[in-house]
Amino acid sequence: MPERSVVSWTAMISGYTQNGKILFLCVKANHCTYGSALIPRVEHFSCVVDMFDRKGWFEEGYNLIGKMNIKPNASLWDSVRGACSIYGNMSVEVATTSLFDMDAEKSVNYVVLASIYAKSGGWDDALKTRKLIKQRSLKKYPGCNLFQTKDQTIELLQPN
Length: 160
Fold this sequence. Notes:
InterPro entries: E_motif (IPR046848), PPR_At4g14850-like_plant (IPR046960), PPR_rpt (IPR002885), TPR-like_helical_dom_sf (IPR011990). GO terms for molecular function: RNA binding. This is PPR domain-containing protein. It holds the Pfam family PPR. The protein is mainly alpha-helical. Helix content is 59%, strand content 9%. The chain has helices at residues 6-18, 31-37, 42-54, 58-67, 74-87, 92-102, 107-119, 123-135, and strands at residues 23-24, 27-28, 144-148, 153-157. The strands form two sheets. The protein has a two-stranded antiparallel sheet. It has a two-stranded antiparallel sheet with strand order 3-4. Helix 7 runs antiparallel to helix 8. The longest helix has 14 residues, at 74-87.
């Protein structure tokens, strides 16, 4: 191949792995070989944790986070929190605490947690969480949708 790129290498590795035929010095590949061909990043872990959480398998997702050799980011914890919200799982506090540690000034973290508490009947906790927004002088910006045409983008605000 005259010109090798990430695309050509990815295609070659993908083809070999799909057929179980990665050969290196005439040795048949095993799970370690395939694992070394991958370089897991936090985005990959986030996708797997998200899949676990969407199935309601919170414990499996949480265990994976604990075994990661990479520091979880806000996107990963936000994914966990979102799934907890959908399923009403109160382990949401772990995700939210991690999000607060990463960005305590982001009001959406408090708003979502208060909504989860309210949804599960925890009105006292929901009220306490909402009060934190006022105590910390955080601003809650309204949600919006974007409408795009060829020539412009229009922001449509959601009614409060």
